[in-house]
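For reference, the entry.
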Amino acid sequence: MQEKAKPRVGLFVTCLVDAMRPSIGFASIKLLQEAGCDVEVPRHQTCCGQPAFNSGADRHTRDIAKSLIDTFLPYDYLVSPSGSCAGTIKVSFKDLFEGDPVWAEKHERLAARTHEILSFLHDVMNFEPKGITYDGTVTYHDSCSGLRELGVYEQPRNLLTKVQGLTMVPLEGNDSCCGFGGTFCVKYPDISNAIVTDKARCIEKTGADTLLAGDLGCLMNMAGKLSRMGSSVKVYHAVEILAGMVDGAPICKPAKAQRAT
C-alpha cells in the first residue's frame, strides 16, 4: 500500500515572532512535524499587511496581499502562530479584492486553507502532544482576532489538558481585549494602558504562575505590563508549552521591583 503523502504546510512566521520571539516559530515547526506535516518557511513572506490595512492604506495592503497569496498558494495549508495574522489573511483580504474576480478567486482558495496553528493542530490534524510536562498553574487569554474571526477557544484548552503537571485556572475577562490592538496602542496609548492594567490585575487575581495565549502581540503587551507591575507571572505562547520548549526565559522576563505605570 502506498504511503499517504504528508500535507505540505507553509508556515507564516509573522513579523513579531521573527523579530522578537523566534522560539515560537521553532516550536510551531516541531509541533507541525510531530503532527505529520512537511513544513516549509517560505523566504519571500513578509508582513501580513495588517498595520497598513488597519490604517486605511488599501493600495499598499493589496500589494502585500498579492505577494503573500502567490507565495503560499502552492502549499496545502498556510499555518500561522497568530490568530491576528491568520484572521487578516483569511478574512480581511476579502475586502481588498472586491470587483477583481481574478484575485478574489485566488484569495478564496488561500483563505480556505489558512489556519491558526492551535486550531489547525486540533481540528485538522487531530494532534495530541505526548510526553510533555509543565509543572505550573496556567491561565489563558483569548486574543480578539483568534476568538472572534477564527473561533479559536476550545482548541488550545483541549491541547493543554494533555500536558502532564499543568493545572488550568479561569481568567476573568479572558475574552476581553488586552489593549494592544496593533496600531491602536500607538494611536491611543492612554486607553491602551488602562485596558492592559485591568487585564494584568485580573491575571494576578487568578493566582496562576503562568499566562498563556496564542498571539505574540497580546503576550508582549501583557507581559510588559506585568513586568512593570513587578509581577512574577511567566508568559509564554501556548505552542512553547505544547512543544516542551520553555527552557529559555519567558516573554518579557518578570521584574521584581518596579513601579506600575
Notes: The radius of gyration is 18 Å. Residues 257-261 have pLDDT under 50 and may be disordered. DSSP finds 13 helices and eight strands in the chain.
